[in-house]
């Protein structure tokens, strides 16, 4: 979610980038939002033929938590290619 601020992340895009299923990704996103680590914004543009997207963005607190996680578990993030950029 912090990889490219110009390209907002939505649930399906995160599923595709991580290779994780929606049953894993969406509960994580909901928890991040409920903990105040991410915000969720509903798409406002027209979207014929598909449901509205909800865009997710890390808050300042979420960025701090992500950086702390990267420092305390670097092997976990390196194995997933998430140390430089990525979704965490």
From TrEMBL:
InterPro entries: Tscrpt_reg_PadR_N (IPR005149), WH-like_DNA-bd_sf (IPR036388), WH_DNA-bd_sf (IPR036390). Gene3D superfamilies: Winged helix-like DNA-binding domain superfamily/Winged helix DNA-binding domain (1.10.10.10). It comes from Streptomyces chilikensis. Residues 20-67 form the Transcription regulator PadR N-terminal domain. This is PadR family transcriptional regulator. It comes from the Bacteria. The lineage of its organism: Bacteria, Bacillati, Actinomycetota, Actinomycetes, Kitasatosporales.
């Amino acid at each position: 979610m912090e990889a490219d601020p110009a390209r907002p992340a939505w649930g399906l895009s995160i599923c595709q980038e991580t290779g994780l299923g929606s049953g894993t990704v969406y509960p994580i996103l909901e928890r991040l939002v409920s903990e105040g680590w991410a915000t969720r914004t509903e798409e406002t543009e027209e979207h014929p033929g598909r449901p509205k997207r909800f865009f997710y963005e890390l808050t300042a607190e979420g960025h701090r938590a992500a950086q702390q996680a990267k420092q305390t578990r670097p092997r976990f993030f390196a194995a997933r290619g998430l140390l430089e950029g990525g979704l965490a």
